[in-house]
Write a structure and sequence with these properties.
Blueprint: H1 4-9, H2 11-30, H3 35-46, H4 57-60, H5 75-83, H6 91-99, H7 120-136, H8 146-155, H9 163-170, E1 181-183, E2 189-194, E3 204-209, E4 215-223
Helix pairs in contact: 2-3, 2-7, 3-6, 5-6, 6-7, 7-8
Length: 234
Amino acid sequence: LYFGDLRVNSDAMYGHSLNVTVISLAIGSFLSYCKYDMQKLGLGAILHDIGKASLNNDTAWKNPLKQKDKDFCSHPELGYRLFRERTDVSPLTKYAVLAHHERIDGKGYPHATAGEKIHEFARVVAVANTFDILTNCSHQSKKQPVYQAVEYLVGMGETMFDKRIVETFVKHLSLYPNGTYVRLSSGETAIVKKQNKNMPARPVVKIVLDKYGKTYKKPRIVDLIESHSLMVIG
């Protein structure tokens, strides 16, 4: 069984694996991994769902964020078994395949491993996998905008994900470049003025239009980190 088997099973699954690889390698570069670790991480990321090729499509495409189907939850172990005896594949690569659905709180699968007992490669792939599921995998549910995916990752920091890895990832995302017009949850329109590096989904904005589209005579500056009742919705 090879990576190309994922494409035979589904182009979307193939594309998802590529996306997870790109995101994982980006995170690895932010964490200053050496090229050898990047190679091991990248191979683990691209093969992370290879076990799904052994499942039927209905099972393989269940939402990993919402269910605990026994057959679906077997795919990390199935993928690991394909490479367990391969001496040309790093144990860390194999482990990334095996443990990408483990959780920091120990409530993941297949072995309910917790905290730093989960190797960092698997913790990186977990973040990359979930981000792509939320923003690109339309077969799961309606695609979420990036800001909602970021809110989810940050909210699940220390429970599902490694908080440090999440923070490292999101602070490099440019969700709303300075000068971008955004719509707020109040219905108002604002211009992004400044970035909050650790919370890119909550920049500093200048609110210029009310919810009816009328221009404010005195626009106000709001830091969305400090204003919990407001958020960017579009």
